[in-house]
Design a protein that fits this description.
Elements: E1 3-7, H1 18-27, E2 32-35, H2 44-49, E3 56-67, E4 70-77, H3 84-110, H4 117-124, H5 131-140, H6 171-180, E5 184-187, H7 201-209, E6 214-218, H8 224-237, E7 240-243, H9 263-272, E8 279-280
Parallel strand pairs: 1-2, 2-3, 5-6, 6-7
Antiparallel strand pairs: 3-4, 3-8, 4-5
């Protein structure tokens, strides 16, 4: 089995619609794909309706969190999307995305980058607006050569000149809310240092004690030594170790199935999730 548990659609900051995403996942030879858009479940219905025969869809989301001034992401799988407390927190994060993006555009303009809010809004469409949409506008305007070049200290990185903080969950609250909604909590790309500061491994241990289910070890932003380190950490803490592409369509260079999760780990995630069940056409 080939299992990819971290992908994004146009419901957040990917370039594939949810229907295109599941069709492309099947063409890529995947058996299981998770839809994990940022802080939203808006793509679920379309993805389920378009699910190709033989492909299993795991519903999820990637939740925006912050601990000690460091931004991090928590993957939530198979939770009840209608559970009110988690739904309310997702809405708070989404509501903050537009004013945050407008503030970042204003900073870019102050820095001389000819990017407009109208341009970013067009690129985002109906998706949850985020930095990748702003980065795409910067590429369109000739400010940077590609999206990844926008995520530097000069521009949009967490410590960048045009960065603006947004409403984010405490990760301990995120784990509690995910579990309370019947879901499974996995720390996304926890040691992706190229994205900026990361929380210490001691925080991962504290999250594990609070109910964290796993860490995303195999990811494009982890080099081989980091992947090995995370697999060891997961074993030491009794956590699941997942692998995923973090696919965003044409917005990033990663391919569907570039990194995958073992069938045994996927089976354990499916067994632990009680808020929703995987869909198979």
């Amino acid at each position: 089995m080939r299992i990819d548990l971290h992908t994004h659609s146009t419901a957040s900051d990917g370039t594939d619609t949810p229907a295109q995403l599941v069709r492309n996942a099947a063409r890529a030879g995947l058996d299981v794909v998770a839809l994990t858009d940022h802080d939203t479940v808006a793509g679920y219905d379309e993805a389920v309706a378009a699910l190709p025969t033989g492909l299993t869809l795991v519903t999820g989301a990637e939740l925006s969190c912050r601990l000690g001034g460091v931004s991090l992401h928590m993957l939530a799988y198979l939770f009840d999307p209608d559970e009110p407390e988690l739904a309310r927190e997702r809405e708070l994060v989404r509501d903050d995305r537009v004013p945050r993006a407008k503030a970042m555009v204003a900073k870019l303009q102050e820095l001389g980058a000819p990017v407009t809010w109208e341009q970013v809004a067009r690129i985002a469409g109906d998706g949850a607006v985020g930095r990748p949409h702003i980065a795409t506008a910067m590429v369109e305007s000739g400010v940077v050569p590609d999206v990844s070049s926008a995520f530097t200290a000069q521009w949009l990185a967490n410590d960048g000149r045009a960065h603006v903080d947004k409403h984010e969950l405490d990760p301990f609250d995120a784990v509690r809310l995910i579990k309370g909604a019947g879901g499974v909590a996995v720390f996304a790309h926890p040691l992706a240092v190229k994205r900026g500061a990361c929380v210490p491994e001691s925080a991962v241990a504290e999250l594990a004690a609070a109910g964290l289910d796993g860490v995303e070890a195999d990811h494009m932003d982890h080099d081989p030594a980091t992947r090995a380190r995370l697999h060891g950490l997961a074993a030491d803490l009794g956590l699941l170790a997942t692998g995923s592409s973090d696919y965003h369509g044409s917005r990033k260079t990663c391919r569907l199935g570039e990194y995958t999760t073992s069938p045994d780990v996927y089976a354990e995630i499916a067994a632990r999730g009680s808020g929703a069940r995987p869909y198979t056409a």
